[in-house]
Amino acid sequence: MGKDKLKRFAEMEHFDNVFQPTMEEVKEGFSMKGKWHTDFFKNENPIVLELGCGRGEYTVGMAQKYPNKNFIGIDIKGSRIWRGAKTGIEENMSNVAFVRSKIDFIEYLFAENEVSEIWLTFSDPQPKRPRKRLTSKLFVDRYRKIMVENGIINIKTDSDLLFESTLEQIEEHHYKKILSSWDVYGEMINTCDEELKDLMDIKTYYEQKWLEDGKKIKFAKFSIG
Ligand SMILES: C[S@@+](CC[C@H](N)C(=O)[O-])C[C@H]1O[C@@H](n2cnc3c(N)ncnc32)[C@H](O)[C@@H]1O
After folding, report:
1. CA distances (Å), 184 to each of 15, 21, 96, in order?
2. Is residue 158 annotated as part of the catalytic site, yes or no?
3. Topology, domain 3-223
């Protein structure tokens, strides 16, 4: 492992806004499950997750725009999370946290009704493993266990495959589609409301790469009931 990565890992051990539970801790009862509002954020504001957050651009960017909401980024890669967590600390943001964990264990990280909204940002399309896609029924059923009634899921992606499959899942499982577009910056941006337009200003590391390559960015927002 490179020197920089090791330094980041060591530094992150002391970050108050990063949780890195072991597999045993997660399975035996993660200390924050059901206690995010009382023990970490110390308010009752809605909790929004970014899953597969990488460097946490949406987690931090939305937290800056919405001080009355709480944001948690989750990713398995510690060296990526470090960037967002460091910004959260440098900017004294009390509404941001990160968890280093597999998303597959999400129901062990949060309790029933603890989460209001989820953002999936440039998730891996998993061409050969549809069940592993973050909008598959397997994952949505996990989200349902921790979300409030009518919880909202947002997905922003470059992948035609993942987007198509997400739209199929929405249809097949009767989720309530609120909005969808195959071309965020060509079509959606001129017709959507100001709030969403503002949110689309946040660009993740992968999004910037795909935009430079001339790829079209897709977006959907739906409620899972
Ligand atoms: C293509 S990257 C996108 C990162 C970031 N959202 C962006 O747009 O720049 C996908 C991210 O999801 C994370 N990831 C993929 N599957 C995961 C899983 N099952 N659990 C946790 N993280 C996962 C990867 O580590 C990676 O950081």
Report:
1. 35, 36, 26
2. no
3. Rossmann fold (3.40.50)
Q: In which band, very low, low, confident or very high, does the pLDDT at 143 lie, cut at 50, 70 and 90?
A: very high
Q: Is the CB of 98 under 6 A from ligand 1?
A: no
- Helix, strand and coil content of the chain, in percent to the nearest 5, comes to 45, 20, 35
- Please write down the long-range contacts of 192-201, taking CB distance under 8 Å and 24 or more positions apart: 196/221, 198/65, 199/62, 199/65, 201/61
CB 209 within 8 A of CB 165: no
Annotated catalytic residue, options 124, 141, 160, 183: 124
- Tens digit of each residue's pLDDT (9 = 90 or more) over 64-90: 999 999 999 999 999 999 999 999 999
Residue owning the nearest CA to atom 4 of ligand 1: 54
Q: pTM of the prediction?
A: 0.97
